[in-house]
């Protein structure tokens, strides 16, 4: 990862941004018991404020399915991806259980996340059944099917387990592509949270950067019944999210020790 910081001004700017982030997260913790009763518009605004407080501007193209159950699937680069998706449509997020142990952000995530224990493969069918019940209830569910964060210049393969939940629930799948850019429009890896990186180091790199831009491209939803099995559905969503003629081949840096979300497919 390469930082996009300006000499001299970086540290004071980062301190102000981190203070704003902490203030917003503490507000989120205070309101978290009411999370499921808060208006969706208020949640979207809070998430946009969170992203903006980090010094990142959002550019959104397309529109998400406005109501009813939907599986939001996106590529995964940064911890910023979660509030970016929620700023498009508030959703419960499938996450590894370790995120619930993060300081400050963990308690906020715990209120809306569906945690998965990657070391318990036998629990996966129950997790898929639970995800399907969430979708049947009319809620949006956000999933990062690559199973781990990537640097943004290369991507992983979409794991298929969560797509089975969408099939079982009979809900659409909404592909979303996330990219981060410098002010001049060039790609940047500054927001990436990969390899041996720590959360604190990643937050510092983002908050010291100059005018990062997050592009959120909402692709056409894949209607229920368009694909007969999770393999075909996952492949269609992957093509929609990751298609890019300038794409770097798959071998790339991802979080060390991060096991992709397991798949039930043979």
The gist of it:
With 266 residues, the chain is an alpha/beta fold. The protein has helices at residues 10-31, 40-53, 81-88, 105-112, 124-136, 161-169, 199-208, 230-242, and strands spanning 56-61, 70-74, 92-96, 113-116, 140-143, 173-181, 212-218. It has a seven-stranded mixed beta sheet with strand order 1-7-6-2-5-3-4, sandwiched between helices.
Strand order of the largest sheet: 1-7-6-2-5-3-4
**Helix and strand composition category:** alpha/beta
Helix content: 25-40%
Task: List low-confidence stretches.
Answer: 245-266
Using only C-alpha atoms, the radius of gyration works out to 18 Å
Report the portion of residues in β strands. 15-25%
Count helical runs: 8
How far apart lie the N and C ends?
A: 35 Å
Shape: globular
Largest sheet: 7 strands, mixed
The ordered H/E elements are HHEEHEHEHEHEHEH
Mean pLDDT: 82
- Topology, number of strands: 7
Q: What can you tell me about this protein's structure?
A:
This protein is α/β, with parallel strands linked by helices and 266 residues long. Helices cover 36% and strands 15% of the residues. It contains 8 helices and 7 strands; from the N terminus they run H-H-E-E-H-E-H-E-H-E-H-E-H-E-H. It has helices at residues 10-31, 40-53, 81-88, 105-112, 124-136, 161-169, 199-208, 230-242, and strands at 56-61, 70-74, 92-96, 113-116, 140-143, 173-181, 212-218. It has a 7-stranded mixed beta sheet, with helices on both faces. Helix 1 (10-31) crosses helix 7 (199-208) and helix 6 (161-169) packs across helix 8. The two termini are 35 Å apart. The relative contact order is 0.20.
């Amino acid at each position: 990862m390469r930082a996009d910081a300006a000499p001299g001004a970086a540290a004071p700017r980062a301190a102000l941004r981190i203070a704003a982030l902490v203030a917003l997260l503490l507000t989120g913790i205070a309101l978290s018991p009411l999370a499921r009763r808060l208006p969706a518009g208020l949640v979207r605004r809070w998430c946009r404020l969170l992203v903006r407080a980090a010094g990142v501007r959002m550019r959104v193209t397309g529109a998400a399915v406005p109501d009813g159950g939907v599986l939001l699937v996106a590529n995964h680069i940064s911890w910023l991806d979660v509030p970016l998706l929620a700023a498009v449509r508030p959703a419960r997020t499938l996450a590894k259980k370790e995120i619930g142990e993060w300081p400050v952000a963990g308690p906020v995530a715990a209120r809306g996340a569906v945690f998965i224990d990657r070391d318990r493969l036998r629990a996966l069918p129950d997790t898929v059944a639970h995800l399907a019940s969430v979708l049947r209830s009319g809620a949006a569910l956000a999933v990062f099917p690559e199973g781990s964060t990537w640097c943004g210049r290369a991507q992983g393969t979409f794991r298929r387990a969560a797509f089975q939940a969408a099939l079982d629930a009979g809900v659409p799948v909404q592909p979303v592509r996330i990219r981060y850019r410098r002010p001049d429009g060039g790609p940047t890896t500054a927001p990436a949270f990969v390899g041996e990186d720590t959360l604190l180091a990643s937050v510092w790199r983002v908050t010291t950067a100059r005018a990062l831009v997050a592009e959120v491209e909402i692709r056409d939803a894949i209607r229920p019944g368009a694909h007969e099995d999770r393999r075909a559905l996952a492949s269609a969503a992957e093509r929609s999210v990751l298609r890019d003629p300038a794409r770097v081949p798959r071998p790339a840096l991802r979080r060390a020790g991060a096991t992709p979300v397991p798949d039930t497919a043979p």
